[in-house]
C-alpha cells in the first residue's frame, strides 16, 4: 500500500450524491423463534458485507484514457512507495503521479466521483463522506517487471484507515501489454478483472488485490479511494 498524499478536501455539501443509500444494504433475515411462553421473537438482522466487485465498462472513454495518460506522462513520475514513503520493490515496482499535483487532470476526478456515488447507492450502501486523498495514476512497465503484490488498501494513517471503496480504472489498451493482471481475492477464489480500456472496478477497500508482473509493454491505471467512518 502506497503512502498516500492528502488532497484538498471538498466539503460534502459540494458532492450531494455522496451519501448513504438508505435501505440498500442486503440483510440476512433470521427465522422467527418462540419462547416457552409462546410469544414470538426474532434475532436481530445481520448485515451482509458486499464483497462482489462492480464493473463499469465505460467509466472513462478510450479518448479520455489516452488524454489522461498523455497529461501524466508529460509530468515527472516518482518511484511508488509503501507506507510512510518506504520502498520495497519485491512488493511493488511502479512509477506514479498524484493527480492533485496536476491540476489539468481534475476533469478525471469529477467524472469518477459521479460513477462511484452511483455504484455505492446501487450496490454497496456504504456510509461515504468524501474523497480525502489524491487520486493516483500508476505506470507498470515490463522493463522492471512492474507489479504490486497482494495487499489491501486499509491501513495505518488518518485517511488510510477510513478508506471504504477502492476504484481502479484501466487506462491502457489491453493489447498494449502482457501480464499485469489485476486480481481480487475476497475469499478463497481469485477473480481476474476483465481487460477493457476505460473499465472501472469498484470493490471494498479491505479486499485483497494485486497486479501481476508486466512481462511486455506498459500498463497504466488510475486508482482512487472513497472515505467514510471506519467499518464496524
Descriptive overview:
The protein is of the alpha+beta class and about 230 residues long. Helix content is about 15%, strand content about 30%. It has 2 helices and 17 strands. It has helices at about 60-75, 105-125, and strands at about 25-30, 30-35, 40, 45, 55, 80, 90-95, 95-100, 135-140, 145-150, 165-170, 175-180, 180-185, 190, 200-205, 210, 215-225. The strands form 4 sheets. Strands 5, 6, 8, 9, 11, 12, 15 and 17 form an 8-stranded antiparallel β-sheet that branches. A 5-stranded antiparallel β-sheet has the order 7-10-16-13-14, with no helix packed on it. It starts with about 25 loop residues before the first strand and ends in a 5-residue tail after the last strand. The model is unreliable at about 10-40 (pLDDT under 50).
Which secondary structure elements does this structure contain, and how are they paired or packed?
Elements: E1 27-28, E2 32-34, E3 40-42, E4 46-47, E5 54-56, H1 62-73, E6 78-79, E7 92-93, E8 95-98, H2 106-124, E9 136-141, E10 147-151, E11 163-170, E12 177-179, E13 182-185, E14 191-192, E15 200-204, E16 208-211, E17 214-227
Which descriptors would you attach to this protein?
eight-stranded antiparallel sheet, 31% strand, five-stranded antiparallel sheet, single chain, 17 strands, alpha+beta, 232 residues
Amino acid at each position: 500500500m502506497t503512502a498516500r498524499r492528502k488532497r484538498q478536501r471538498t466539503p460534502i455539501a459540494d458532492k450531494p450524491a455522496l451519501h448513504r443509500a438508505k435501505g440498500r444494504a442486503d440483510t440476512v433475515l433470521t427465522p422467527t423463534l418462540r419462547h416457552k411462553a409462546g410469544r414470538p421473537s426474532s434475532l436481530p438482522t445481520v448485515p451482509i458485507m458486499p464483497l462482489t466487485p462492480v464493473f463499469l465498462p465505460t467509466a472513462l472513454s478510450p479518448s479520455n484514457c489516452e488524454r489522461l495518460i498523455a497529461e501524466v506522462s508529460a509530468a515527472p513520475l516518482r518511484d511508488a512507495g509503501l507506507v510512510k514513503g518506504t520502498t520495497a520493490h519485491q512488493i511493488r515496482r511502479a512509477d506514479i503521479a498524484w493527480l492533485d499535483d496536476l491540476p489539468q487532470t481534475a476533469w478525471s476526478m469529477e467524472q469518477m466521483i459521479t460513477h462511484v456515488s452511483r455504484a455505492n447507492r446501487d450496490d454497496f450502501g456504504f456510509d461515504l463522506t468524501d474523497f480525502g486523498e489524491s487520486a493516483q495514476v500508476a505506470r507498470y512497465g515490463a522493463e522492471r517487471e512492474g507489479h504490486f503484490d497482494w495487499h489491501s488498501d486499509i491501513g495505518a494513517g488518518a485517511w488510510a484507515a477510513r478508506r471504504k471503496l477502492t476504484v481502479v480504472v484501466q487506462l491502457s489498451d489491453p493489447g498494449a501489454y502482457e501480464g499485469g493482471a489485476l486480481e481480487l481475492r475476497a475469499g478463497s477464489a481469485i477473480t481476474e478483472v476483465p481487460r477493457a480500456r476505460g473499465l472501472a472496478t469498484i470493490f471494498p477497500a479491505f479486499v485483497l488485490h494485486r497486479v501481476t508482473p508486466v512481462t511486455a509493454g506498459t500498463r497504466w491505471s488510475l486508482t482512487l479511494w472513497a472515505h467514510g467512518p471506519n467499518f464496524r
